[in-house]
Every structure is written in C-alpha cells, then in structure tokens.
Amino acid sequence: MERLQKVIAHAGIASRRKAEELILEGKVKVNGKIVTELGSKVSSNDKVEVNEIPLERETKVYLLMYKPRGVISAVTDDKNRKVVTDFLPEIKERVYPVGRLDYDTSGLLILTNDGDFANLLMHPRYEIHKTYVAKVKGIPSKQMLRQLEKGIKLEDGLTAPAKAKLLSADKKTQKSIIELTIHEGKNRQVRRMFEAIGHPVQKLKRERYAFLNLHGLNAGEVRELSPHEVKQLRALAETGSGNQ
C-alpha cells in the first residue's frame, strides 16, 4: 500500500504537494469514491482518478545495481554528489533504492518504483539476509568473531545474531578479510560492529542480498531483476525465510 499523493506524483500528474492539494479539493477518486484524506493509502489494484481522468500508473521496475564507492544511495543530494540514479539515464520511471548503502560502501543495491515491494523487503521482521565482505584493520580472534555472531551492543541496541567468517589474514600488514551476514539495517551497522570489537573497516562491499549476487556486473552497472527473482524475493520476505 502507498500513500495516495505519492501514487499521483509517481504517475507524473503533479508534484507531491500539488497532489495533496488536489486530494483536499475533492478532485481525486479511488474506486469511484471521492477521497479527501491525505493519509489514505491505495494498492496497485485500486482505480484512481484525478479530475475524472483515470491514472496511468508507471510500469513496475525492479533493478539490481552494483553501487560504486563514493555514490549516495538516494535520488538527489543537496551537496551535488553522485547519486545512484545518475547511473540510470535510460530509466524513465522514478525508481528509488530499497534501503541504502553508505557513501563509502560498494555493492549490491535494489532499486524499484514499487512501494509495496520496497516496504516488504525493508521491514525488519522479514529478515532478508545481506552478506558483506569487509577489509578490516588487524586480525580478529575466534572469540571476537563469535561475539559478532552472538550480538554487539551498540548505542541503538543489541545486534541480532549474525554469521561471521574469516576469509583471509595477513600477519605482515595486519589486515584481514571477513565475511559478515546480517539481516538488520541499522545505520552503518557493519562498520559499527567491527569498530566495537576494535577492528575498524577499511573497505566494505555488499556481496549478496538473499539469493542475489553481483555476478556479471561491474561497479556502476545495472540489470533488471527477472519476474522469477522478484517473485522469489516476495516469497522469502513473506515467509520469513530471508536466509535462502
């Protein structure tokens, strides 16, 4: 379900603010009935009319992007930094990222214009697993890795159980590569978890999102998700089986 004014704005009829004015003026109908409440939500099955003209909804778009480092996970930036939609010149629909990756973090990011789908994937109770590969300072002990798995106490709460695996360690440079799988989405969570055990992240990449990976893509490249992949993601979220 999406807010009515957002659906109108996405259809290109008017800006979000103008859409709100149209609703308050009684110029919007949902399934034949005038709706004047701004909090109203509609689904993709609802028939929306603006000034008696049926709304032409955007085609649903589902994209998988390999986000480069130094790019904002947003559609605009007030500091004029590069944003993910700068890499989508041929996409006419107004897509936006599902969740976010930090400016300095690269890797797998999903973009869509399907609000219901985005909300489903971002809801914490659905436990979509995300796998990161981190280059960290120092070599964490087995005890430290177990602590990552059991949970790290951060200022905004204890992290949920995770999976941690040491992929490689270089005693000479005192650096290591660690794979970490989580299903939460706290702000800068992976970086803060490693900082908490005394091994700050020097480089971070999200390698997998549920069953999706970056195979065949270079940084900055995008591909469409297949209908089957979209269906699989919905099923994983709805059944709480996000680790598959």
UniProtKB/TrEMBL annotation:
CDD domains assigned to the protein according to its UniProt record, in alphabetical order: PseudoU_synth_RsuA_like, S4
Record-linked Pfam families: PseudoU_synth_2 (PF00849), S4 (PF01479)
An annotated GO BP: enzyme-directed rRNA pseudouridine synthesis
Cellular component aspect of the GO annotation: cytosol
Keyword match Secreted: no
Gene3D superfamilies in UniProt: Alpha-L RNA-binding motif, Pseudouridine synthase I, catalytic domain, N-terminal subdomain, RNA-binding S4 domain
EC numbers: 5.4.99.-
Domain of life: Bacteria
Alphabetically ordered keywords of this record: Isomerase, RNA-binding
Protein name: Pseudouridine synthase
Organism: Heyndrickxia oleronia
